[in-house]
Amino acid sequence: MQLRYAFRLYPQPGQRAALAKAFGCARVVFNDAVRAREDARKAGQPFPKAAELSRKLITEAKRTAGRSWLGEVSAVVLQQSLRDAESAYRNFFASLNGTRKGPRIGPPRFKSRRDVRQSIRFTANARWKITDGGRLNLPKIGAVKVKWSRTLPTTPTSVTVIKDAAGRYFASFVIDTDPAADTARMPDTDRTIGIDLGLTHFAVLSDGTKIDSPRFLRRAEKKLKKTQRELSRKQKGSKNRAKACLKVARAHAEVTDARREFLPQALGFARAGGTPIQLSTQLIAENQGIAVEDLSVAGLARTRLAKSVHDSGWSSFVHMLEYKAQRYGRTLVKIGRFEPTSQTCSTCGVKDGPKPLDVREWTCTACGTLHDRDHNAAINVKTAAGLAASACGAPVRPEPVLARREETGSHGSPPDARAA
Question: Is 32 a catalytic residue?
């Protein structure tokens, strides 16, 4: 399978100018492709082919006075921008006819120079390379300093350079993993686990382990409020407003990075002998089968708990479990969101009825067992997934659940083991 490893870049002033030029050229080619297709649609003509767009919008455009500056950047960047436009239209039409899963998406829109995120992609044809000194040498940009937090397991097939809203630069490498090496790294085990995700605790495992939720957004609200207030007092279009916008973006980036670092390392030092282990990888390594609830995050985000639901980062954590389960041959089972895990006694199986969220402990009326609400739910999640009787070494599930690709990587100096 394919994974992404992201590392922080520190370009020099001249390199930042060259990157800005490359971002702009890629954006112009993308917009020209969207405009050409929209013009064809309005005229009732068939959409121009990719080869025709490449010839008109890149090869011939470079010879004109209005687009001659396209020759100042790598041609691979422009070609990849055209491919992005093609992919956007394919996804749009697949969403229209129902062959693409997920919510319906709209047609491609024009990109703006004011977009908070800019990116360009270099494939192997661009002849980029990692120098012996550890720098990333990009065509017509130069050797950019990289903050390496770990080594790449294999040779990357492409690299995407990204500039985020906080003004930071990243290099995202695409690599192909080795199935044999992954299998050797994670030997089979007969253990299984159930996970109950919540707000009081980020996760409670069926073995009784509780992982506290740090509530990063709640803790940073005071600082975010101050930066937003300063931004609201700046005159629109002024340089001071631009500085205030950057300050707000950096404050939000700190919250995002803190949450991203927490999700992999939530178990801390307990089982690693003093070394931080990422939660998702540790659960995958120790358990052949993992059961979680298929929570409706979009539905919960429309309630009064919306801010806490978004702050918890449940979806990101489950996505990490998904792709790692596929990579290492584990089984990830999602049970239905309407399964009464918090209402059923895990000892006798009697359904004891719904309970308010403030009830954290309850006693079963049938067998008299005192239950911790979240621990009981985690056990029921494991039972509902059919994983409860697998300790004898029997097969956990007939086949693994396919996982989507996820981007892995680090965004700062501390090592990030999300690709482990």
Answer: no
